[in-house]
Design brief:
The chain has 2 domains: 114 residues, D-amino Acid Aminotransferase, Chain A, domain 1 (2-Layer Sandwich); 157 residues, Alpha-Beta Barrel (D-amino Acid Aminotransferase, Chain A, domain 2). By secondary structure, the chain is of the alpha+beta class. It has 8 helices and 15 strands. Strand 10 and strand 11 form a beta hairpin. The protein binds pyridoxal-5'-phosphate. The site of pyridoxal-5'-phosphate (PLP) has 14 residues, from helix 6 and strand 13. It holds the Pfam family Aminotran_4.
Length: 279
C-alpha cells in the first residue's frame, strides 16, 4: 500500500493533514475509486471525466491537469509494486482556517493504492440480500462528493440486517445502492434508473451498458419501484469495486427470480471480467 499527498509519496500511516483541512472539516471535496488490473486502471478516462466534472460542479479547481494526474497515478502504481490494486483519489478545497465560504487556497489532492479488497466467492456465486432503505440524500447525487453520511447510514442499516447492500428508494422508485448502481432484468431487458441528479452515474454502469449493447440485450434507462424489483427475473448491483454482484433477494420481502444468479447477470459479468483483463 502507498499514499500520495500534494507532490509527495507517503506511507498510509504518516500524519499528513492539518486539522483545518476542508475535506476533514466539511466533506468539501470529491473523490474517485477505481481498480487497477495488471497495472492498468480500468476505464481510467471515464473516471477522470467524472472526477473533473464533479470538481467543476462544486467549483474546485484540480491543480494537476489530466496528463499530470495520469503521470502521478502511474508513478503511484509503479512505486507501490502492486499490479492489481484499488486506487482511492480525493480532491478537497484545501487547507485553510475553518470558515464556510471558500478560501483562496490551492485544492488538495490525495491518493492511496492498496491491494484489491476481494469479495468472498459466495457473494458472486450465490448472490446477495439487499435491504430497501429510504433515499435520504440531497439533489446532487450525480456529483461524487465526499458527503456520504446518508449512504453510510443506509449501508450500516443493511449490514445490521445481514444484507450486502442497501437499495435506496426515493418517491416510490429505486434510485441505486448506497455505493453501487442497481438493475433488474425482466423479459430479457436490463432496466436501471436514468442517469439523472438522483444517482451517481457509475463507471461500471457505463461498462454494463456497452456490454449489453454489444450482446444485443436491451438496456432501458427507466426507473422501477420495489414491487417491480420483486417481480423481476433477475437483479444485480455494480460498482468499480464489486464489478457485478447478483441480487438473490430483498430482506423481508422474498427472493428475486429463482433466488440464484441469473443468466443475464452471469453473461454481463463474464464479459466485464474479460474486458478488465483484455488491455
Ligand atoms: N452509486 C454510488 C452512490 C456509489 O458510491 C458508487 C460507487 O462507489 C456507484 C454508484 C458505482 O460507481 P462506479 O461504477 O463508478 O464505481
Amino acid at each position: 500500500s502507498l499514499g500520495y499527498i500534494n507532490g509527495r509519496f507517503v506511507s498510509l500511516e504518516e500524519l499528513v493533514l492539518p486539522i483545518e483541512e476542508r475535506g476533514h472539516q466539511f466533506g468539501d471535496g470529491v473523490y474517485e475509486f477505481f481498480r487497477v488490473y495488471e497495472g492498468n486502471p480500468f476505464m481510467l478516462e471515464e473516471h477522470l471525466d467524472r472526477l473533473y466534472r464533479s470538481a467543476d460542479l462544486i467549483r474546485i479547481d484540480i491543480a494537476p491537469d489530466r496528463d499530470e494526474l495520469r503521470a502521478i497515478m502511474d508513478e503511484l502504481i509503479s512505486r507501490s509494486g502492486l499490479a492489481n490494486g484499488d486506487i482511492y483519489l480525493q480532491v478537497t478545497r484545501g487547507m485553510a482556517p475553518r470558515n464556510h465560504a471558500f478560501p483562496s487556497v490551492p485544492s488538495s489532492l490525495t491518493m492511496t493504492i492498496k491491494p484489491w479488497r476481494e469479495l468472498a466467492p459466495a457473494v458472486r456465486e450465490q448472490g446477495v440480500q439487499v435491504l430497501l432503505h429510504p433515499d435520504e440524500r440531497w439533489l446532487n447525487c450525480h456529483i461524487k462528493s465526499l458527503n456520504l453520511l446518508p449512504n453510510l447510514l443506509a449501508k450500516q442499516a443493511a449490514v445490521e440486517e445481514g444484507c450486502f447492500e442497501a437499495v435506496l428508494v426515493r418517491d416510490g422508485f429505486v434510485t441505486e445502492g448506497s455505493s453501487s448502481n442497481a438493475y433488474l432484468v425482466k423479459d430479457g431487458a436490463i432496466r436501471t434508473h436514468p442517469a439523472t441528479n438522483h444517482i451517481l452515474g457509475g463507471i461500471a454502469r457505463i461498462a454494463v451498458r456497452r456490454i449489453a449493447e454489444e450482446q444485443g440485450i436491451p438496456f432501458l434507462e427507466e426507473a422501477f419501484g420495489p414491487e417491480e424489483l420483486l417481480a423481476a427475473d433477475e437483479a444485480f448491483l455494480t460498482s468499480s469495486g464489486i464489478e457485478l454482484v447478483p441480487i438473490a433477494g430483498v430482506h423481508g420481502r422474498g427472493a428475486i427470480g429463482s433466488g440464484r444468479p441469473g443468466p443475464v447477470a452471469r453473461a454481463i459479468h463474464a464479459r466485464y471480467a474479460e474486458l478488465t483483463r483484455q488491455r
